[in-house]
Write a structure and sequence with these properties.
about 120 residues, 3-stranded antiparallel β-sheet, DUF7344
Length: about 120
């Protein structure tokens, strides 16, 4: 009985971790970009892609300040969190990001998009 309870607690903790990670729009953009591109992705390319998604514009139209702000938060907050959760591999030496669980990420993003459509959550 203890094993089932312990296993259940681990599953809940994992689900809670995933939900917490995906509660942030910028991290959802990172997961979305990684699920759609061949790994590894150069950090600069990821920053531009996330900036473009946030600004809802083409990369050439993004303000330098926006790119700098996205770069700072990805480098210091979001990528380390996703790396710690083993969702991505963030290599600071080569400045590349690789999806660790590509198929799971695609499924997750599909589910998130479904929830957004159903509940009109355009956050």
């Amino acid at each position: 009985m203890e094993n089932k309870t312990q296993s259940f607690s681990t599953e809940v903790q994992s689900a809670d971790t995933i939900f917490a990670l995906l509660s942030n729009q910028r991290r959802r953009y990172v997961v979305n970009v990684l699920s759609e591109q061949e790994p590894p992705i150069a950090l600069h390319d990821l920053i531009i892609s996330v900036s473009s998604l946030e600004a809802e514009t083409e990369p050439e139209n993004i303000a330098a300040e926006t790119i700098d702000e996205v770069a700072t938060t990805l480098n210091h907050v979001h990528l380390p969190k996703l790396d710690d959760a083993n969702i991505i591999s963030y290599n600071t030496e080569t400045n590349t990001v690789t999806s660790v669980q590509t198929e799971k990420l695609k499924l997750l993003m599909s589910s998130v998009e479904d929830v957004q459509r159903v509940y009109c959550l355009e956050a």
